[in-house]
Amino acid sequence: MVVYTDSAGRAAHADRLFHALADATRREIVALTLTSEQSVSELARRFPMSFAAVQKHVTVLAGAGLVTKHRHGREQRVRGNPEALREAHRLLDQLAQLWRGRIERMGAILAEPAPPTSTQSVSTPAGTDHEPHSQGESP
Amino acid sequence: MTVIDVQQDPAGRTLKISTRFDAPPARVWQIWQDPRQLERWWGPPTYPATVIDHDLSPGGSVTYFMTSPEGDKHYGWWRVTSAEAPHRLEFEDGFADDAGRPNLDLPTTTVRVQLTADGEAATVMTIESNFPSTEAMEQMVAMGMVEGMSAALGQIEALLAEPTAD
To answer: Cα torsion for B76, B152, B112, B115, to the nearest 10°?
Structure first.
C-alpha cells in the first residue's frame, strides 16, 4: 500500500475509493470476492457482460485497493480487500463523529430545566451550577 | 437523548443520523432557530461558533465563524433552501473567506433536518448530510471541525502506513 504523507494524496486515494464503490457491479464484485476468491472468468459468468467489461471493473477496483489480482496458472484471480472497504467507512465515521458531538451538546441544552427564550442572549457557559432564571413564555 | 441510528452510504456519500430527544419538536426547533442556542452546539468547546446573521426562512442565510484554539476565525455560511417550522429544515453549508463572503470554490454540504413528534413530549430528529464529493468530506475533516480530529487522522495515517498483509 502506498503511504500518503500529504492530504492531497489522501484525497486522491479516497476519491478512487468512492468512485470505485459508486458502481453497483463493482460493489457486487467486491462483495463476492470478499467471501471467496474468484477468477475473472468466474465473475464474467455471473454478470450479463463481457469478460473484457468485467476485467475493466476489476482494474478500477484494484486501482482503488478494493481488490487484489494475482495470476494462478492461466487464470487471473481476484480477492477482496476488507481493509480498503473499512477505510471508506472511516471517513464517514469521522463526519458522524462531528454530528454525534453536536447531538450530545443539543441534548445538554434540551435537558436544561428552563430553556432561554429565542431573544435572550446566553452569556453563561453550559453547565453553570446556579439556578436558572425562571422565564414566562409570554407571547 | 439517544442516538438511535447511524446510516452510512459510502457510494452515495451520505450520512444519516437519527436521534430521540425528550422534548417536543417545537422545543427542538428552538435550538436551530435561536442563534444563541445554535452557537452552543454547532462548534465543539475547543472550536466555538459565533453566529453573525441568522435567518431560517426559505432563501435566508446564516453566517458564522468558528474560533480555533489559536484564535483563528474560520467563517462559514448556510443558505436555507427550505424550512417548515418546527418540522423541516434544509440548507447548504459552506465555507466563507475571512470577510464572511461565501467561498464557492470550496465544496458545500447539503443538510436535511427532520423533526418528528414521538408521542407528546419527544422528538425523533433525523439529520441527513450529503457530500458532493470526497473532497468535500476531506475538507470538512481537514478544516479542524471534527472533535478528536488529530486522533482520528492519526489513525488513518497509521492505517495508510501499514504494509499490505499478503
So the answer is: -110
